[in-house]
Each structure stands twice: as C-alpha cells, then as structure tokens.
Amino acid sequence: MKFFNETSYEPIPIYRVMDNNGQIIDKNEEPNLDKATLINMYKTMVQLSHMDKILYESQRQGRISFYMTNYGEEGIHIGSASALSPKDLVFSQYREVGVFLYRGMTVTELVNQCYGNCEDPGKGRQMPVHYGSKHHNMVTISSPLGTQMPQAVGAAYAYKRVPNNDRCVICYFGDGAASEGDAHAAFNFAATLDCPVIMLCRNNGYAISTPTSEQYRGDGIASRGPALGLHTLRVDGTDTLAVHNAVKRARDFTVANNKPVLIEAMAYRVGHHSTSDDSSAYRSVEEIQKWTKDESPLQKFKLYLEHKGYWDAETEKAWSKEARDTVVRTMQEAEKKKKPNWKEMLEDVYYEMPPRLQKQMKQMEEHLKKYPEHYPLNQHESD
Amino acid sequence: MALKSSPAVLGMLTRLSRRSFATSKALASKPVTVRDALNQAIDEEMERDEKVFVLGEEVAQYDGAYKVTRGLWKKYGDKRVIDTPITEAGFAGIAVGAAFAGLKPICEFMTFNFSMQAIDHIINSAAKTFYMSAGTVPVPIVFRGPNGAASGVAAQHSQCFGAWYSHCPGLKVLMPYSAEDAKGLLKAAIRDPDPVVMLEDEIMYGIPFPMSDEAQSKDFVLPIGKAKVEREGRHITLVCAGRGTDTALKAAEQLAGSKGIECEVVNLRTIRPMDFDTIARSIAKTHHLITVEQGWPQSGIGAEICARVMESPSFFELDAPVWRVCGADVPMPYARTLEAHAVPGPADVVDAVTSVLGNKISAVQAQ
C-alpha cells in the first residue's frame, strides 16, 4: 500500500523559449512572427506599462477612484492575445488590460471608462478596470472571483454546437481565483462536456497579500489539470514568445478536438494588488527588485528584438515618449468630458424598460424641468 | 397534506360561471397536471427554437428528478438536454456563459434551496450583466425548479425564495399556480430576453387542472407581469401566488359557504414585476386586503405589497389594516404535524379574513 501526495511526482516543468537575455534557447521553438507583428507586440507592452503608471498616479491624485496595474504580466497578456484569433471570445479577471489593448481597444476608450465620462463605452456603469467590449469579443469584467470560469466553459459549449466552428474561448484567472469552487467546476465541466476552451492561469505569486505558499499545497494549478482530464502546460509567463507558442498550440488543439487546455503561466506581480493595497506590508522590497531586474517581460522581449535588429535605443526613446504622451493627452481630454446622461442610470436594467422605471424616469424629467438650478445638469450629457 | 383534485373541479366551475382576466375559455377540456404542462412548454419551445436547451442534474436519462423533463432527452438527445456533474455553481455558471454566447438555456435546480450554491451566478452575473455591459450583453436564461415547502423534507429543502429573488432588479420572477399558469408563464420566460427565475411547486406538480383549447396551442403565452383574478368577490381581497393561491381559494370556498364572505382571490403569477394595478383595482372594490404566502414574514412578498399599498392611493381605500398570512418564522421542522403548523393552511386564511373584517387587529396587537 502506497499513499501518493504532492511530492510523489516531479513538478510539471516550465516551458520557455528565451533566456533572461532575450536569446533563443532552442531555435526550433522560435515562433515565425514577422517584424511588424513583433514590433506591434512590444509597443503594446510599453503602452500598457505607461498607461498603468499614469493611471495609478491619477488615482493617488484623486482623479479616478480606483486602478489596478499589470506590471510583470505584460508578457502573458500580449503573448496570449497575439496567438488568438480576434473572433475568439475572451473572459478575463481584471489584470489583463494588455489583451484589450492588443485587440484594438484604444487608450482613449480605457481612460474614458476609468473616468466614467459620457464617452465611456460602459456608460458609467462599472468601476475602473472592469472593461468590456462586445465588438472586440471581450466579455465585460465581473468582480466576483472565478465566476468567469464556468461561464467561459458554457460559452465554449455554445460555440462547439455550431457546425464547422472555428472559434475558441480563453479564460484568464489568477492563482488565488483558482481556489474558488467555480474553478474546480469549470475544469471538470470543460473536460466532461468537451469544450473548446483555454483556461489560462496567471500565477503571479500573490492573491492580494496571500502568497502561493498559503494558497495551495499541491504543485501549483497545473497539477490539477491532468487530474481532471485536461491537456496541461506550465509556461514561463515572463517569456512573451513562450506564452505565444503555448496559446497558439492550445488554440489549434481546442478548436480541432473540442477539448480544453489548461495553461499555467508563471510570473510575478510587481505592483500592488490595486490602489487599495500597499504590498510593502507583506513582502520585501528586495523580492520585488529581484523579479523586476531578472524576469522583466519587457526587458527580455526588448533584448530579443534588438538581437534581431528590429529595435534600438532611439526607437525605444521615441516610442516611450509617444506612449506616455498619448496617455497624458487622453487623460486631459477625458477629464474635460461631461458625465454620462443621468438617464443611463435607469436604462438596460431589463431588455425593455419596465413601466415602473419609465414612470420614475418621467417623474425625474419633470422634476428637473421645474428645478434645474438645483442640479449640476451642465456637468452631464443632455439628450 | 396530500391535495385531492377537488380544487381543480371547483376551479373549473368558478371559471365557467365568471369571466376571468386570463384569455382562455374553459370549454370541455381534459385535465393536465402542472408537471405535464411544464413538460409541454419546454418541448414546444425547444422545437420552436434550436438555441433553447436544458441542463441540470438528472434532467436527461433520468427524465428529471421530478420528471418535468420526461421524454425530452429521448427526443432531442445529448446536445439539447444535458446532465451535469453535481455542482450548482458550476452548471449555473455554464448556463450563464452559454447565454452570454447567444444560446437560451433552461437551467434546472433540483430545488431552489440548492440554488443558493449558485446564487452569485444568478444575481451578480445573470441579473446584472445587461446593465453592466451597457446593454450589449443580454442574458436570455431561465432558472427553474421547485420552490418552497414540499412534504417532510425539512429545513434545507423547504425554503421559499420568492422574496430573495424578487428583491433584485434585472431579474423577472414568476410563481405559477395552475397548469395553465405553468405552461403560459414558462413559455413566456423562455422567449423573454431577460433572465427569469421560475419558482414552481413540488406538491402542485401532480395536480391536474382543466386546460382550455387555447392553452393547448403551441403559441399560448401568458404575459409576464400580469396577475389573474381567480375568483371575484366584494368583501375582501386575497393576494397570493403559487401554492398560496390554492390555500386562498380553499379558504374563499369555506368563507363563502359558512359565513357568506365573498373573497376576491388575486393570483399574482408574476412576483417581479408585480402587477400592483390589479391589486389596487381589487382594493378599491373590497376595501380590505390579506396577503398569503408560504415564505417567512420578515421582508417577504406580503411586506412588499403592504409597502406599495402605503405608498399609493390604495391606502385611502382600506377600511382596515392589511394582514399578512405567512409561513411560521422558523426553519421548517420535519415532523409531519409540526410541518402542517409551519405552513399556512386555509384555516389560517379564514382566521385572518375574519379578524380583518371584524376589525380585531388592534385588540390582538394590544395583547
């Protein structure tokens, strides 16, 4: 009789393509990406990090209420987004802004959402960072952790019913969210219902202040995959090319076989959990610095591009400035814009506005006609 | 505790002799159980729209824990009727995700008591996503299953969730009473682009009701948000839904016979959006109101009706305060005799009516 536990097996190995200096380890693994695509990928990563920095500061200055940064995970965002088709449906958690940017959402749209102004595609309904875009096939972000996971599986189930389906679903979630009951249900269903879904875990070491050593005892999230019948891979999340390869292969597999894939991307959350967190309370500055220095996805990818002769110090300086200016300019414009029309508060509760809300809308309209001077109507968009 | 078919016969007689708001004519019609009515509704809607599908525990090969989905897996196969692993959070989430992606799921909870394990998906995702997505992602999903007390299944299988779900904007909440209610409302729910919670009743599943020709048509749909006056009367209004309607009708029969009190029984059919207009019209006629529900008193459906009466001109139509008849404020006990006391019966409604009409409320409250 032999009991098995988490030490009975070797940990699932980590797949990487580049070393810390951006050098390809095995030439056979280098993806065939053209110059324009590679440069676009890198530029998006830089744009993301500038946007993060400025929007984080703007929360500290009281301009927006809340923000979450993505430092250290840019490689996961862009590596995965670049391997998907724009038709694939994306369910995200909240730390995947790079995917939105790569898909074509503009800095303007994202900043407008943070400000909740009249041009916010979300009509002022959601807190900052809770982006969504039907046009870009990105499901509107939902706060309760992990609920997007079985929902992603359900959407994949809907896709596979279509004959000649060529779309998959990707679902991002963190190492902490993977502890939710929904995660287990999602993995189990994805396997038992044969759904074309990629479950991508961003294991960044922390769930607010809870380190992974307290989050789970097993071999990370990847070890749960084979246990539940999922094709599984563990990848270096700071290696953009490795993430790209992994997601590309996963996508081809899910669409061809209507079977799920679990990818665990190992990275490190360089920033605080959000603007409501101060991570110096639970981790050392040295730890953060080590990861920033040795395992920066931006650094590794930049070196790779430089080795290929696609990028240099000049272009770096120019793009850095442009990326920063874009965000600053966009913010200045966003601040000047009006707030959404007050009527948006009552719209979209149901498909058709029910009589009770219609009545309340009418009452408010009449009230405002009578007492406009008591309300900041000029700050809001009017009909 | 077992119900006989007499309420159905009496119901038919009253329908023959009075006009009702439901747009059906009670001609010579064959009785259909609530279970079969639900089954017909699902079958017809699945045939009509191939995006409609059913998922839940035991819905496929087992024909459903309460046989509501009997025969559907045999007819439509694995693609349209899916047995799920045992996780309410899991399959409710799957259903919501499928609705996001354009399908029309019917998600069955073996009982709504188990829906609490999935309530985040129902409230935070299904109810709120259309709003949060700025009107770009509708969620055309139906959550259905038995709700409220059954028989000898105790605390964790007997709670009524009418008040919980009807609290939340973004959801529509239905509580059918008769077979016609069940069929018409479920078809309307499946066709509705909003998320709908359909609170059925296990005891009512087996009760047959006359089903008019019109109700047997494949296009028979009842309007969501419209109550039905099951029995007209001029002395007092009884507002109820689901099994409460059966209780109220039985009490009305007793009161008409023994005391000559004519009760007007208003079957809500929809809890949210609530048809207050019908209640108001009835109060304007009778000037007295009782609410009847199985759920607990605090923050219940009856409490909502009282609040609305207070806030409307109907307040001035009342000649006496409103009295709520509710389930006893305890977790449901198991013993049969205790259970019978914990759920309102016709005698409780009769007591309430005589108290209200006798203006005895102040005396009781002064004790």
Automatic annotation (TrEMBL), chain A:
Keyword Membrane appears in the UniProt entry: no
Q: Which GO cellular component does the record give, naming just one? A: mitochondrial matrix
Keywords for the protein's UniProt record, in alphabetical order: Metal-binding, Mitochondrion, Oxidoreductase, Potassium, Thiamine pyrophosphate, Transit peptide
Q: Report the EC code(s) recorded for this entry.
A: 1.2.4.4
Q: Name one GO molecular function term.
A: metal ion binding
Which cofactors does this protein require? thiamine diphosphate
Annotated localization: Mitochondrion matrix
The record lists the membrane-crossing segments as none
The catalytic activity, as recorded, is: N(6)-[(R)-lipoyl]-L-lysyl-[protein] + 3-methyl-2-oxobutanoate + H(+) = N(6)-[(R)-S(8)-2-methylpropanoyldihydrolipoyl]-L-lysyl-[protein] + CO2
The organism is: Bombyx mandarina
The similarity comment for this entry is:
Belongs to the BCKDHA family.
Protein name (record): 2-oxoisovalerate dehydrogenase subunit alpha
Q: What does this protein do?
A: The branched-chain alpha-keto dehydrogenase complex catalyzes the overall conversion of alpha-keto acids to acyl-CoA and CO(2). It contains multiple copies of three enzymatic components: branched-chain alpha-keto acid decarboxylase (E1), lipoamide acyltransferase (E2) and lipoamide dehydrogenase (E3).
An example Gene Ontology biological process:
branched-chain amino acid catabolic process
What PANTHER family would the database entry show? 2-OXOISOVALERATE DEHYDROGENASE SUBUNIT ALPHA, MITOCHONDRIAL
List the taxonomic lineage. Answer: Eukaryota, Metazoa, Ecdysozoa, Arthropoda, Hexapoda
List the Pfam families hit by this protein, alphabetically.
Answer: E1_dh
Which intervals hold domain Dehydrogenase E1 component?
42-341
Q: Name the SUPFAM superfamilies for this protein.
A: Thiamin diphosphate-binding fold (THDP-binding)
Automatic annotation (TrEMBL), chain B:
The record places domain Transketolase-like pyrimidine-binding at: 32-207
Q: Does the keyword Ion transport apply?
A: no
Q: Which SMART domains match?
A: Transket_pyr
Q: What is its EC number?
A: 1.2.4.1
- Keywords on this record? Metal-binding, Mitochondrion, Oxidoreductase, Potassium, Pyruvate, Thiamine pyrophosphate, Transit peptide
The protein depicted here goes by the name Pyruvate dehydrogenase E1 component subunit beta
Q: Does the keyword Transit peptide apply?
A: yes
The record's InterPro entries line, in alphabetical order, gives: PDHB_mito-type, THDP-binding, Transketo_C/PFOR_II, Transketolase-like_Pyr-bd, Transketolase_C
Name the species this protein comes from.
Bombyx mandarina
